[in-house]
Amino acid sequence: MKKLLFLFIINMNNSNITIVSSCNSQSNLSIVAHYLQAKQKLMQENATKEDVETILDFYSDTLSYEHVLSSEKKFIFHGKNDLGSGYTSHLGETRNVKIELLNSIERQNIIVAEYSIKREFTSSGKIENSKIVSLFEFDRSGKIKRMIDYL
Question: Can you give the pTM of this predicted structure?
Answer without folding.
Answer: 0.81
